[in-house]
Design a protein that fits this description.
With about 160 residues, this protein is mainly α. Helices cover about 70% and strands about 0% of the residues. It has 8 helices and no strands. The longest helix is centred in the first third of the chain and has 28 residues, at about 1-30.
Length: about 160
């Protein structure tokens, strides 16, 4: 019973961390400088949801200058920790060439990683299938190889 409670509390902690980072990002996006500084501090300390949210702010130009390169850098830090949304956003950046060179193989790799852990909505799998339509079988094989070899980092 104690293990179940501990697991529930751990799950609740992740949800609270996500909510906290989203609230900080919302305030930062509305020009709240202390909230932006707090979000940056959490992101620099390796908090994946802070990194994701900071990337979103940079991609939209909310509370910070619009900067796709900076957005992609923060998405990468979240994605490398295994963050599903960070992987999706980084895949999109590579697919469009926003802040990073346009690269179908790398875009597919990141969306493939996201598809392996996505919620039940099937969005990442659909995006992966769309990406594959623009690729050769050799490119898909290379992206899948990279996906298999991927090891999440600690985020710092």
């Amino acid at each position: 019973m104690a293990k179940i409670i501990a697991l529930l509390l751990l799950g609740l902690g992740v949800t609270l961390a996500q909510q906290s980072m989203s609230e900080l990002a919302k305030s930062a996006g509305q020009g709240d400088k202390p909230a932006l500084q707090q979000l940056k501090t959490h992101a620099e300390q390796g908090e994946a949801y802070a990194q994701l949210n900071l990337g979103l702010l940079y991609s939209r130009g909310e509370g910070v200058p619009k900067d796709f390169m900076e957005a992609a850098a923060w998405y990468r830090r979240a994605a490398e920790q295994g963050n599903y949304l960070g992987q999706m956003k980084l895949s999109g950046a590579y697919s469009k060439g926003e802040g990073v060179p346009k690269d179908a193989v790398t875009a597919y790799m990141w969306v493939d990683l996201a598809a392996a852990q996505e919620p039940d909505d099937g969005f990442a799998k659909a995006q992966r299938d769309l990406q594959a339509r623009e690729m050769t079988p050799e490119q898909i094989a290379e992206a899948q190889r990279r996906s298999r070899e991927f090891k999440p980092s600690s985020g710092k």
